Amino acid sequence: MKRNLVPTVLSALVATSLLIGASAKGQGLSAEEQQFVKKAAAGGLAEVKLSELAKERASDAKIKDFAAQMVTDHTQANNELKSIADSNKVPVATKLQGESEVAYRRLEKLSGSEFDAAYIKVMVSDHDKTVSAFEDASSKVKNPDLKAFIDKTLPVLRQHKDHVHEIASQTGKA
Question: Which of 47, 87, 92, 147 is the most buried (most CB within 10 A)?
């Protein structure tokens, strides 16, 4: 009894090509990409927490408005990045750490124009660093999902950077 092996061989080839295609698409993240995800997630979390504090404590309406925009935009970006991190099994920070925690503790002790000046100084520095890190990653990242996230988020971060520099110069809090 001869069996026709063609369907079996074809099925095996199709299954193999699907597996190869799936593994090529879901290659995961390189060590450098994982580091970027962790740093970007920690930075995004800091933007939200510091800006939530600014929404309560800032005395200048422009700064309160900027803080509200930071909470909205960075919460959305954080959720998108968390999805990428989760699908690639990259753990990300869920609470402030390091410099961000120190900045938060310092800011929560301030009020009025002192708070405004300190918050804007942190936002200027953070956005300068963040835009630079995203620009660098944009040219290096190979993972298609992470690359798409970076390319989508970078223009928003550049707007934030320009906006916070404008606020700093207008309010004399540079």
Answer: 47
CA distances from 101 to 40, 50, 84, 107, 150 (A): 15, 9, 24, 10, 25
The Cα 44–Cα 81 span in angstroms is 9
27 band by pLDDT with thresholds 50, 70 and 90: low
- Report which DSSP code applies to 89: T
**Domains present along the chain, CATH in parentheses:** 28-171 (1.20.1260.10)
d(CA 88, CA 46): 22
Q: CA-CA distance, 140 to 121, in Å (whole number)?
A: 29
Mean per-residue pLDDT, 28-37: 95
CA distance 134 to 156: 11
